[in-house]
Amino acid sequence: xxxxKYSGIPNVVFISDACRSLPDSRTAQMVKGIDAFxxxxxxxxxxxxxxxxxxxxxxxAFEGNVEGKNQGFLTYAxxxxxxxxxxxxxxxxxxGGKTIKVVPNRKLEQFLQATINDIVAxxxxxxxxxxx
Length: 132
Hints:
- The model is unreliable at 128-132 (pLDDT under 50).
- The radius of gyration is 18 Å and the shape is flat.
- The chain is 25% helix and 23% strand.
- The longest helix has 14 residues, at 108-121.
- The chain has a two-stranded parallel ribbon. Strands 3-4 form a two-stranded antiparallel ribbon. The protein has a two-stranded antiparallel ribbon with strand order 5-6.
- The protein has helices at 2-5, 26-29, 73-83, 108-121, and strands spanning 11-16, 48-53, 63-66, 69-72, 91-95, 98-102.
- The chain has 4 helices and 6 strands; from the N terminus they run αβαβββαββα.
- Helix 2 links the parallel strand 1 and strand 2 (48-53).
- By secondary structure, the protein is of the alpha+beta class.
């Protein structure tokens, strides 16, 4: 995320719907990431970074049966935001003489949190103390 901030890309979105727990084996500990963004010295303005994550550090991501399918709660909430968005989340833009409806990233955070909280509240044995 630090490299993305000064990549010259105006808006970067990270979506992490996976566990953020510590590796539990030697092979998992050996997995190494690589930098995905350029590091240009001429970039002086910072990018807007949106980060939607399914869990907090060292906690499993929530997943389970939602509407008859086993799925990650963040993935379900994210899809819901675009399939059945709340009216106040939608913005209309003109593109090529046509009106298109979009859901900006800035409108997702509260919706995602509320949707995941609602799901967790209906699941026995699942407690929620983190944030997405």
